[in-house]
Design goal:
By secondary structure, this protein is an alpha+beta fold. 31% of the residues lie in helices and 23% in strands. The protein binds adenosine-5'-diphosphate (ADP) and magnesium ion. Residues 19, 22, 37-40, 99, 101, 130, 132-135 line the site of adenosine-5'-diphosphate.
Length: 358
């Protein structure tokens, strides 16, 4: 029986064979890409009256993902999506991506091709050109590091530092879906697959609850960065970031950078249905999952006017909710519970303090 060439390890292609394959796939759709893959450095033409945004995010096997959780193409998409989300949170347009790849020698060529399929499709969707990168063998699992450029009108990028007392705090979408998906994946559920044999299912966890958990898994594996919303908020948001670590720590970043405090209201948090199911299933509090779970990649922003008008044209169906307000203070965030009790809001993901999620 002849072996499928896509099952072969990367030694069959070699480093330069792999780079050639990546190069053949990379389009040139992003404006300002004078030279992409193939030389010592890419050449990017700076656009007049625009500021250049640059961001990097890594995904590490065993820290951010596990190989058997989802498809390789979803992983390729996510590697780009988490970076696109950072450009979105500045109000920018994504442009060129640079892909740092640390690949275990035994990874099948076919798996890497599927990863590149997902990355390439996502790049086309967001108008991104893969313009370079670096490729090495990894002895510690798959390492994915994407650097992404973006462009925004000169002086207009929305920073974390612009929140002012009297602003309200808003979020797009619903929170806690990704944390619920992570919990479901770590307990053995898989995207689109039936309930695993051998995993206890409580009687209350019926088809509707399973569908909610599947929505959580989809949110975790294929997040949808809010590019159009971020750009539409350019005229309206005083401060903005994307929710990668959870409101609890991300809002604290905004407050610290802006020199203000914030109060959020438990009753107003748009908790995703998946978070309610995951919370009941794991004996946790749904609100904690929504506020500390992380990886929702929704936008959190401060504004003193109702942003609905800014967002209506670009993202007419995206929900946006006010969850609190900015107050005079020094960086603290408190949570007001439905009875009026006030507790400090702590938590959120910290790579060196939180338990390893996988
Ligand atoms: P150098 O030795 O000068 O660093 P490389 O052999 O690492 O050159 O890379 C050759 C070209 O291929 C460069 O344009 C580089 O940006 C590109 N490249 C290498 N690895 C990747 C990758 N994983 N994704 C995209 N481009 C890559
Ligand atoms: Mg190199």
């Amino acid at each position: 029986m002849s072996q499928d060439p896509l099952d072969a390890g990367l030694a069959a292609l070699g480093e330069f064979g792999l780079i050639d394959r990546i190069r053949r796939r990379a389009g040139t759709c992003a404006p300002g890409t004078a030279l992409g893959i193939g030389d010592d450095a890419a050449i990017l033409v700076l656009e007049p009256d625009q500021d250049l945004l640059v961001t990097t995010d890594m995904l590490l096997e065993g820290v951010h993902f596990s190989r058997d959780w989802g498809s390789w193409d979803a992983l390729g998409r996510k590697a780009l999506a988490v970076n696109v989300s950072d450009i979105a949170a500045m109000g920018g347009s994504p442009r060129q991506a640079f892909l740092g790849l640390g690949v275990p020698g035994d990874l099948a060529i076919g798996s890497l091709e599927q990863f590149l399929d997902g990355l390439e499709a996502a790049a086309a969707e967001w108008g991104v050109t893969l313009a370079g990168g670096d490729t090495c063998r990894s002895a510690v699992g798959l390492v994915l590091s994407v650097t992404l450029t973006g462009a925004v009108a000169h002086g207009r990028a929305v920073r974390r530092s612009g929140a002012r007392p009297g602003d309200r705090v808003w979020v797009t979408g619903q929170l806690g879906a990704s944390a619920a998906g992570l919990l479901a994946l770590s307990r053995g559920l898989r995207p689109g697959a039936p309930w695993p044999a051998g995993l206890d299912r409580p009687a209350w966890l019926g088809p509707a609850e399973q569908a909610a958990l599947q929505a959580g898994i989809a949110a975790h594996l294929t997040p949808a960065p809010r590019v159009a919303a971020g750009q539409a908020l350019l005229g309206c948001a005083h401060a903005m970031l994307d929710l990668s670590d959870g409101v609890a720590s991300d809002l604290a970043h905004v407050c610290r950078e802006s020199g203000v405090a914030a109060r959020i209201f438990a009753a107003q948090i748009p908790v995703h249905p998946a978070a309610r199911v995951a919370a009941r299933w794991s004996g946790q509090d749904a609100l904690t999952l929504a506020l500390s779970g992380g990886e929702d990649y929704e936008l959190l922003f401060a504004a003193d006017e109702d942003p609905t008008a800014c967002l209506r044209q670009a993202v007419p169906t995206l929900p946006v909710t006010t969850i609190g307000r900015i107050e005079v203070g020094a960086g603290t965030v408190v949570l007001e519970l439905p009875g009026g009790a006030i507790v400090p809001l702590r938590g959120g993901f910290d790579h060196f303090r939180s338990p390893v999620p996988i």
